């Protein structure tokens, strides 16, 4: 793909616009590093200063984007003849400009500062199991987000505006259609498994796993998968995440003393996110062509590596000896036992990030339903714990005993809304990409042999290298040959769990 740096035949306005995009990208990357530090290394008392720092950078980025010159450059380019890559850059920057230009800079500063403060309050509330401690911050955050949504689209649907922040060019209606398919299909499949009554015991249960050995296991997994240490690092965080760009993609995980699979799968999941960042064109850093497409596409990469690779039988044929080397008491565990253990379902689980591959999506669906009702003013802050518990009982048959295990478990509402769809969109797209990849590669054979580079290269060729060249729906068709569909995901789970549970 041609580099956007090749502007010798481009309009002067385009060259100026591209330079501004790179400056804006650098401001955002600086904010990302500060946010990473806050969640990983910053002392608790640093919050007041960090809030001011990120607020200033957010305001600076906003000013760079909505400057009158940007509007003039975009207007002058409307009738210019541009290459496909240049037209994509202009499309993406015009979309950002038009959404941001209506939002007052003061509101951006307020929102950014409050997000930082809210994350600290959320951490305190979760640790103390005290939703009332978080409620005022959440109330203020929703008011600021509604104000921003109203500025972008006066009289419009606040929830749709916020949804389009992270899922541009993928209609909310299409996502809700997919969610309806999944809700009907997965509830029935989970109920069938429950009625059958077959249990898949875990040979990993009933033991203690020290953090040092678990970390070494995660490091070995990253080395095996090909994570380039000169471009990343592994740390711990209360809520695992990845942060970075094509030069610096950092991973976090967390360790549970009684469950080594939790940290391992979280590490592989975040590695998947890192592959996307590291696979973006390096010479397009700071421009839309060097940026990921959407949260749903990003999640497809982490879900592919976590579920279609890390939970595969082929992976455990390869990796089980490494696990036994770190934990000798697992010496007698077989590949089939390990494979079954990492894929068993446990609907009684309360925590989304610890959920199995099937029930996970019911966790997402209930969050989206609560999220939308809250944003649209149909649900008061004080009602969230009750509604959360009711939906957990309805969808999963369990009720949290504490808010820390319920509506306080996720960090998302401390900084944003209308973002949860990306997790399930990612799983659906991961299955579709996996099916397309298998037309070209012997995926299981490569995994069994520890040859992961061809998988990463395939994803880079079909997804990563395009950056934001294509709108979301078009990128999915370019990568897989067809529009987004839930068919491949439903076929995948039917085959996988039908075999495991002998349905």
What does this structure look like?
It is a single chain. By secondary structure, the protein is mainly α. The protein folds into 2 domains: 145 residues, no CATH class; 329 residues, Neurolysin, domain 3, CATH 1.10.1370. It has 20 helices and 3 strands. It has a 3-stranded mixed sheet with strand order 1-3-2, with helices on both faces. Helix 11 packs across helix 16. The longest helix has 29 residues. It is globular. The relative contact order is 0.12.
What is the compact description of this entry?
This protein is mainly α and 503 residues long. The chain has helices at residues 12-40, 47-66, 68-76, 84-100, 105-128, 131-152, 158-166, 172-196, 211-225, 260-279, 295-309, 313-326, 335-343, 360-375, 384-396, 421-438, 443-448, 453-462, 472-480, 487-500, and strands at 234-236, 242-244, 249-253. The chain has 20 helices and 3 strands.
Labels describing this entry:
single chain; 503 residues; mainly alpha; Neurolysin, domain 3; three-stranded mixed beta sheet
Secondary structure blueprint with pairings:
Elements: H1 12-40, H2 47-66, H3 68-76, H4 84-100, H5 105-128, H6 131-152, H7 158-166, H8 172-196, H9 211-225, E1 234-236, E2 242-244, E3 249-253, H10 260-279, H11 295-309, H12 313-326, H13 335-343, H14 360-375, H15 384-396, H16 421-438, H17 443-448, H18 453-462, H19 472-480, H20 487-500
Parallel strand pairs: 1-3
Antiparallel strand pairs: 2-3
Distance linking N and C termini: 47 Å
- Please name the CATH topology of the largest domain: Neurolysin, domain 3
CATH class of the largest domain: Mainly Alpha
Strand content: under 5%
Please count the helical segments: 20
| Helix percent band | 55-70%
Major sheet: arrangement of strands: 1-3-2
Low-confidence stretches: 5-9
- The coarse overall form would be globular
Going by CATH, the architecture of the largest domain would be Orthogonal Bundle
Please give the oligomerization state of what you see: single chain
Counted beta strands: 3
Q: What is the mean predicted local confidence, pLDDT?
A: 94
Number of domains: 2
The radius of gyration over CA amounts to: 23 Å
Major β-sheet annotation: 3 strands, mixed
Helical/strand content category: mainly alpha
Order of helices and strands: HHHHHHHHHEEEHHHHHHHHHHH
């Amino acid at each position: 793909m041609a580099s956007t740096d090749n502007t010798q035949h481009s309009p002067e306005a385009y060259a100026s616009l591209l330079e501004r995009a790179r400056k804006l990208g650098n401001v955002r990357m600086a904010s990302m590093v500060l946010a990473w530090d806050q969640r990983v290394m910053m002392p608790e008392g640093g919050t007041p200063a960090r809030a001011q720092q990120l607020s200033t950078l957010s305001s600076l980025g906003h000013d760079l984007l909505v400057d009158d010159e940007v509007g003039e450059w975009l207007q002058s380019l409307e009738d210019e003849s541009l290459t496909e890559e240049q037209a994509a850059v202009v499309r993406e920057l015009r979309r950002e400009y038009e959404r941001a230009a209506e939002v007052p800079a003061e509101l951006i500063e307020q929102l950014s500062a409050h997000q930082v403060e809210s994350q600290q309050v959320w951490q305190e509330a979760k640790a103390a199991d005290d939703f009332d401690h978080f409620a005022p911050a959440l109330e203020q955050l929703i008011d600021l987000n509604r104000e921003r949504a109203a500025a972008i689209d006066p009289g419009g649907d606040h929830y749709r505006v916020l949804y389009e922040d992270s899922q541009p060019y993928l209609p909310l209606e299409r996502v809700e259609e997919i969610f309806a398919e999944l809700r009907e299909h997965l509830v029935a499949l989970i109920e069938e498994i429950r009625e059958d009554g077959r249990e898949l015991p875990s040979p990993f249960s009933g033991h203690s796993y020290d953090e040092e050995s678990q970390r070494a296991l995660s490091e070995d997994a990253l080395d095996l998968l090909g994570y380039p240490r000169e471009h990343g690092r592994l740390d711990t965080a209360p809520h695992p995440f990845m942060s970075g760009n094509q030069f610096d993609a950092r991973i976090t995980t967390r360790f549970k003393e009684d469950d080594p699979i939790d940290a391992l799968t979280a590490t592989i999941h975040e590695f998947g996110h890192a592959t996307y960042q590291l696979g973006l064109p390096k010479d397009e850093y700071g421009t839309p062509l060097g940026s990921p497409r959407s949260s749903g596409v990003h999640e497809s990469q982490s879900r592919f590596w976590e579920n279609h690779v890390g939970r595969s039988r082929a992976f455990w044929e390869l990796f089980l000896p490494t696990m036994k080397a770190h934990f000798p008491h697992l010496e007698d565990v077989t590949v089939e036992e390990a494979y079954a253990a990492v894929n068993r379902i446990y609907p009684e689980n309360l925590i989304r990030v610890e959920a199995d591959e099937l029930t996970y999506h019911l966790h997402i669906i209930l969050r989206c339903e609560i999220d939308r009702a809250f944003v649209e003013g149909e649900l008061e802050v004080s009602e969230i714990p009750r509604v959360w518990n009711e939906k957990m009982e309805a969808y999963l048959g369990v009720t949290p005993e504490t808010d820390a295990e319920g509506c306080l478990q996720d960090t998302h509402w401390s900084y944003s809304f209308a973002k949860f769809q990306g997790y399930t969109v990612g799983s659906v797209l991961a299955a579709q990409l996996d099916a397309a990849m298998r037309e070209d590669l012997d995926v299981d054979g490569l995994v069994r042999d520890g040859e992961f580079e061809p998988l990463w290269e395939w994803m880079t060729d079909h997804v990563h290298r395009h950056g934001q060249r294509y709108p979301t729906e078009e990128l999915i068709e370019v990568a897989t040959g067809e529009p987004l569909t839930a068919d491949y995901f439903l076929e995948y789970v039917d085959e996988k769990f039908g075999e495991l549970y002998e349905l």
